[in-house]
Batch of 2 targets.
Target 1
Amino acid sequence: MCPQGRAGSSPVSGTKKPALSGLIYFCEMMIDNIKKYLEEVKKFHSEKPEEIEAFRIKFAGKKGVLNQLFAEFKNVPPQEKPQYGQLLNQLKKEVNTKVKELKNKAGKTSSVSKDKTDLTKPGFPHPLGARHPVNIVKNRIIDIFRRIGFNVSEGPEIEDDWHNFTALNLPEHHPARDMQDTFFVQTNPDYLLRTHTSSVQIRYMEKHQPPIRTISPGRVYRNEDISARSHIQFHQVEGLYIDTNVSFADLKQTLLYFTREMFGKSQIRLRPSYFPFTEPSAEVDIYWGLETETDYRITKGTGWLEIMGAGMVDPNVLKNMNIDPDKYSGFAFGMGVERIAMLLYQIPDIRMLFENDIRFLEQFKHSL
Ligand code: DAH
């Protein structure tokens, strides 16, 4: 309480000023002020964030009411300090609770303040991924053949016997079936995991008549022991070209074009070989050179590297597909993508291509 004779309870009232000392009068005023402020705070209500903020600044801002009143504290007569201080603390508390309460409410209703995302902020950088080396090589092969008019065809990995073997001139019990150790579907051995993408060539010929120029990339499976050189799964790209007057010279020229583009090497040799679906058939070697120790190692000291099989499409295959072998001829070729990737990137073990070790894969970040 202020000293006796508070303004309101003074016996002397009306026009006459109360006979109070300046200090006490000042004290009365300040306390009344705080009470008025308390009323104002209690009554204040708004859901508009900008109004709430204005209210906060008025009371709790740097030059706000609270700070001003606290600054006056030193002028309050000592006996009044407890009451003044108590009221002032109450005001401060009320202001803070009110601001908090109103801000909470406004935050819940206003979608603007709920959404804390600042769309203008720069995003977090995502680590750059890398293409898998098998894909890099596959894409390069596709690109090279696209440039000379080949399109891309694809087919299923679970194949039937007809597309994988019989139609390709490999009838049942043909000994050449053993060349490709096959995974059969246990419940129905007429189905298998394709052993080569030559099956896609059959599917393509079922749907298209010559001229045909297509390459078939894809994953294939063979029941082999896994080692540094061989795996039960790998990728192939096979090519097929059928038209009138397609000759072995066309095959050779196409392969030469490919080896130039792919490896920058322009010397190839064709060694006679056997594939049931081509006649004549050949293994294609490129001259890699003997310049470095690695060249010696990978070519076994010969300088030559085998990179694919090829040949002229066997007339029996054309007949199977209702393409007249007297009118049309064609060539086909097939290569292993992993083998080429291992050569180009000097990868010593095929298993590295299937382990998905980030430390290995990251090295291909800057390859296209
Ligand atoms: N399909 C053969 C294999 O997987 C590769 C091959 C050889 C494909 C000669 C061809 C070809 O199209 O003409 O071993």
Target 2
Amino acid sequence: MAILPLIYSPDPLLKKISEPVAEVNDEIRQLLDDMVETMHDRQGIGLAAVQVGVLKRILVMDLGYGSKRYAEAGGEGESNPIHMVNPEIVASSDEENIYEEGCLSFPGQFAEVIRPKMVTIEYLDYDGNKQRVDCDELLSTCVQHEIDHLNGITFVDHLSRVKRNMILKKLEKQFKHNM
Ligand code: NI
């Protein structure tokens, strides 16, 4: 396993649409493992392949490990990674939910985003088997955020232009300051 370098906004790759994966083979499983390790290292709860510079429709999530938010909620911090290849939203609720979202490609930036409260996802798992899962609460928000990445959309695209520009400016300042 390896920790992979992340890309950050405003990297133009973040606006690209990722390609479907033809087959879940060992090369893909290696990428999935590396992505989980990278996500844990950065205390993230979700990561899309594009964020490590790979334009494939792959995402990983783990709500139970490393996440500060999970620790604040009194969680056990146990690792329970979810691997999704070619995930698709096949149903979503009319009811909506608001979560304060962040993103490993926008370090230190957070904003409230409104999304459908529940979604049903079809995807291929680590072994290439087709799965269908109903997602609610934080898992629902997280999977929608990550699937957005596969379509070249980031959480700031859900905000007003004013809020989005504010975050992009803050990020620019932060990067200048750190380099
Ligand atoms: Ni993100």
